[in-house]
């Protein structure tokens, strides 16, 4: 299937999930992440969930990161430029939901993309080669392209991978891992 077909299919799959499923699966994903050898790193970029899109609840991962005393980075979207500006999450960080339903920091201590060690990536679908499909605006592809070459890219999904995505472009950046409630896929 192509990206547009998969976006439609996976939005329907997520819409069919109950809130209790989302919570249970999100906890299971957070527990699976503990099995990865990523915890010696310092700077972890995480997305704050868009509840209306039935995304994975990243608050459980956030609790793990804070419990391990890691530096947590969150993004603010610039829709005119299609870019993400990244800020250190502190006790003083004010988070506000933007007009698209995305929780974002209002401002704070900016962190250079090259400093980030691990990125937890939202997605709609992915395939067995680590290709991912997001919402189609390219924010994460541009962001990941500006990170250091060693950054660890971890997709989070409620679902197993597709066999393949037909229309991958040269600008699409693939994942190193994708973590689901039941499995860790390595690419």
From TrEMBL:
What is the annotated signal peptide range for this record? none
UniProt xrefs under Pfam families: 5-FTHF_cyc-lig (PF01812)
Q: Which UniProt keywords apply?
A: ATP-binding, Ligase, Magnesium, Metal-binding, Nucleotide-binding
Q: What is its EC number?
A: 6.3.3.2
Record bears the keyword Magnesium: yes
Q: Which domain of life is it from?
A: Bacteria
User: Which cofactor does this sequence's record say it needs?
Assistant: Mg(2+)
Keyword check for Cell division: no
**Reactions listed under catalytic activity:** (6S)-5-formyl-5,6,7,8-tetrahydrofolate + ATP = (6R)-5,10-methenyltetrahydrofolate + ADP + phosphate
Look at the named UniProt entry and state the broad enzyme category this protein falls under. ligase
Tell me one GO molecular function of this protein. Answer: 5-formyltetrahydrofolate cyclo-ligase activity
Q: Which family does it belong to?
A: Belongs to the 5-formyltetrahydrofolate cyclo-ligase family.
NCBIfam families attached to this UniProt entry: MTHFS_bact
What's this protein's name? 5-formyltetrahydrofolate cyclo-ligase
């Amino acid at each position: 299937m192509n990206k547009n077909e998969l976006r439609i299919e996976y939005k329907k799959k997520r819409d069919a999930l109950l809130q209790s499923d989302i919570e249970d699966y999100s906890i299971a994903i957070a527990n699976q992440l503990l099995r990865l050898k990523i915890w010696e790193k310092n700077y972890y970029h995480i997305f704050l969930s868009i509840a209306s899109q039935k995304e994975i609840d990243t608050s459980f991962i956030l609790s793990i990161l804070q419990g391990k005393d890691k530096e947590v980075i969150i993004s603010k979207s610039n829709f005119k430029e299609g870019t993400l500006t990244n800020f250190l999450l502190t006790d003083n960080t004010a988070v506000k939901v933007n007009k698209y339903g995305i929780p974002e920091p209002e401002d704070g201590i900016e962190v250079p993309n090259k400093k980030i060690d691990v990125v937890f990536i939202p997605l709609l679908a992915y395939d067995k080669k680590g290709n991912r499909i997001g919402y189609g605006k390219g924010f994460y592809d541009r962001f990941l392209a500006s990170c250091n070459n060693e950054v660890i890219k971890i997709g989070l999904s409620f679902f197993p991978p597709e066999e393949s995505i037909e229309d991958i472009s040269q600008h699409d950046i693939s994942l190193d891992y994708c973590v689901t409630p039941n499995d860790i896929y390595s690419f």
